[in-house]
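Record 1 of the preview.
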Amino acid sequence: MANQPVQTVSTTNDKIKVVTALCAVVAGIVGFYFLADQSTLARAGVLVLGIAVAAAMMWTSTPGRDFVAFARESVRETKKVVWPTRKEATQLTLVVFGFVLLMAIFLWGTDKILEVLLSFILGWK
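->
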């Protein structure tokens, strides 16, 4: 990802837009449950409308535009990832399992040796 300087300055107008967007989402959710006796389509419409209003408000604010830019850049970066082949993934998985088994045997052996030594030296059982 590109190293962009972090800006913490935001205007009051942007803060108002973010709060309004949050209120629109909350209003959509409350409306969805408040209209429990209405049809599912009407309830879903109120919810979608609240989310759409929130998205529009966020789209016009600086934090919203910054988030969209970040999301686009993240998608671009994930396209650059080179995934291992099936054979490579299987081989790496077997290496990890082998190492875990080896460590389990080592720790079990160390525990038994310490158990024998402590029971011999200190008489612990």
